[in-house]
Amino acid sequence: MIQTEVLIIGSGIAGATAALRLARNPQRRIIIITRDPDPHESNTRYAQGGIIGRGPDDSAELCATDILRAGAGASSPPAARLLAEEGPGLLREILVEMAGIAFDRDADGELVWGREAAHSRRRILHVGDGTGRAIMVGLIAALRRCPNVVIAANTTAVDLITFPHHSRDPQDTYRPITCHGAYAFDRTGRTVHRYLAAATVLATGGLGRIYRNTTNPPGSRGDGLALAHRAGARIINAEYIQFHPTALATPGAEGFLISEAVRGEGGVLLTPEGRPFMADYAPEWRDLAPRDVVARAIHHEMETHGYSHVLLDIASHMAADALRERFPNIYATCWKAGIDITREPIPVVPAAHYSCGGVWVDEWGRSSIEGLYAVGEVSCTGLHGANRLASSSLLEGLVWGSRAAQRLEAWLGDQSTLSTPGRDDVPSWDESGLVADADPALIQGDMQTIQNIMWHYVGLVRSGDRLSRAIRELRHLWNEIETFYRRTRLSDGLIGLRNAVEVALLVAQAARHNRQSRGCHYRQDSVDEQGDRLL
């Protein structure tokens, strides 16, 4: 058994920010668990484009307006204002001053502001095309300087510890659900530990790996969303899965993100024959239209004409030296794949990228379960609505990670409200009687089945028939996986498979329930006129 004040599950920008803010009080005890052996590994690490700041001709009002416009009428105006007003100050305080992030500057030492789709101003700060990587290096280094923060890497959360479910006290049956930590699997020792905490923060990132084509890293299986759902937390807007329009479509490099900043710097989408097509779908914004519009436009061109991909041309619009300097990682990855982006266009396809819904939280990151907070992509603050504005996710993690820590500090300071169970209050993990080891072939096969179902039936374009088929097949698979799980010794792959099928069902059921096309939830059989936004 391991006891702490705050347990944070996930080490990306949201979880790391919460830990850093809490750690300023030397009395606080914080443990971060993360499934990868390297705590830098997270969704944040793969963010290329940058993070929203406030450029010289910008304002909080303009930024909030762009967020709400991109969200297709489903975003929360208070959340958009909160992000736009608090974000720039926190960016400076936490990322620049505490984590030492050196954002790109020009020859005169002035910050370089980038522009991305659906932004009316240049307001994106970046570190080349590796902004997320730079942020993670800075944040983890800052955390390692905090003596009251422990990072437990190579540790996968299995289930949240909630009362009354895990309580040995019969009186807890009549009390509201409260969270007191998590059971977590030590991947090195292959044992499950009880992490008991006064408060728990979910910061596990996204779920893109439930789709066949995704820009997300291997750990993005929806772990946190599944943990929260099994515990009884409220989940909202699960149907709004954003597909990034431009992932590299080259054998061996599938899923590598080609940043929206490429189009922000003048890149143009073309058919394989060289025909620009975005003016046909978004005459005003063209290649800088919101992501849902661009992704469906590409999908429509591919489906209508039988293309295996479309092309993104930046070579004709940016000098070679400037291109290599601005996008060094994209240049290097494409070069390894046999593509010289300074001379030829990049083959791209849409890919699952970001979950706009998630665990419902308020303006302080509090979920519907007492003692459980959620920050970053696993949460739903209402900010993104039906379609996330480019480069808003890192700032959301920063803002809500900070706000959750602020609220927790006040709560932890009131000792009368605290309730941390002890060793005898929560049963140990019981694997007695389990004799089978997890079969990697079964896990991989089931995961691929989930990914294919989600890609074909719950993807960019949906319908009632497709969604009903997905739900039938996923329910059957859920039963098979639960049976498999309950007679098999744990592994990280088995935990991820169980979470993936749970989350896939959540997304499919929410998509079938919502018959109105909006943003990145596009139904061919829409009952309203929102579907006319694109096709």
Can you characterise this structure?
α11 packs antiparallel against α12 and α12 (464-486) runs antiparallel to α13 (492-513). 35% of the residues lie in helices and 16% in strands. The radius of gyration is 23 Å and the shape is globular. The strands form four sheets. Strands 1, 2, 5, 6, 7, 8 and 15 form a seven-stranded mixed β-sheet that branches. The protein has 535 residues and is of the alpha/beta class. Mean pLDDT is 94; it is low at 529-535.
Summarize the structure.
This protein has 13 helices and 16 strands. By secondary structure, the chain is α/β, with parallel strands linked by helices.
Instruction: Write out the CATH superfamily name of the largest domain.
Output: FAD/NAD(P)-binding domain
| Topology, number of strands | 16
* Highest CATH level, the class of the largest domain: Alpha Beta
Largest sheet: 7 strands, mixed
CATH architecture group name of the largest domain: 3-Layer(bba) Sandwich
Low-confidence stretches: 529-535
Binned strand content: 15-25%
Give the count of helical stretches. Answer: 13
Classification by helices and strands = alpha/beta
Note the overall shape.
globular
**Whole-number total of structural domains:** 3
Helix/strand order: EHEEHHEHEEEEHEEHEHEHHEEEEHHHH
> What value does the Rg take, in angstroms?
23 Å
| Straight-line N-to-C gap | 56 Å
What's the CATH topology label of the largest domain?
A: FAD/NAD(P)-binding domain
